[in-house]
Specification:
3-stranded antiparallel β-sheet; 11 strands; Rossmann fold; binds zinc ion; 6 helices; alpha/beta
Amino acid sequence: MKILFLHGWHSVPGGVKPAYLASHGHEVINPQLDDDDFQAAMNTAKAAYDDHKPDVIVGSSRGGAVALNIRSEETPLVLLCPAWKKWGRASELKRNSIILHSRSDDVVPFMNSQELIDTNNLPAESLFEIGSDHRLADDHSLSVMLWACELLTTGEPLPWLDGFSDSETDFRNLCNSDVQHEAVYVCDACGEDIVIPLDLSQGAFQTYVEDCPVCCRANTIYVHLDEDGTFQIRAEPEQDYD
Ligand SMILES: [Zn+2]
């Protein structure tokens, strides 16, 4: 997959997020955008878009505003806490877009992304509340960013856009179904298979810490809902993230 990554204000190409995407085998075009002149940043981004014809555009913070303000036909967008109210004039968001934003973001308010979804009449599922700050550079946020790129470039309609008004019902049905209400992870410390219940009402992406019932060591459990509707679980030893 070819990804055009538009970095944030005073970020430099080669940061954690584009490096993460590249490390998963994707071609990442990561142009240096002018920090002072928004029009110049847009011109650079548009030229990179025209030259490389990416499969998806990822825009982080100010880069998210750049992504919204350049013409990019039907190319899907992954926006990371986009600073669209601060830079540029565009407030139109295409339907094949996914936004990731932390409610604890103290640089760009989470409400701005909420507003972007609402004014474009997009379903709530287009906005993922994730991470614990503006950077979204933690492992979980990085993996969701990658997942979003992969989902948007499958060519399949997004599950929540397929009969948009029914999507809430579909998710409720999934929650009520008997399918996969529990899952198994392997404890990293003792290697035991641990069966845990899944609370689907907690959303498609969940991260929490629980003590292994066998060896009592704390594991961070990552749960995420795949495109085909199955839950993937993995456990890591608990660590402190700064
Ligand atoms: Zn254990």
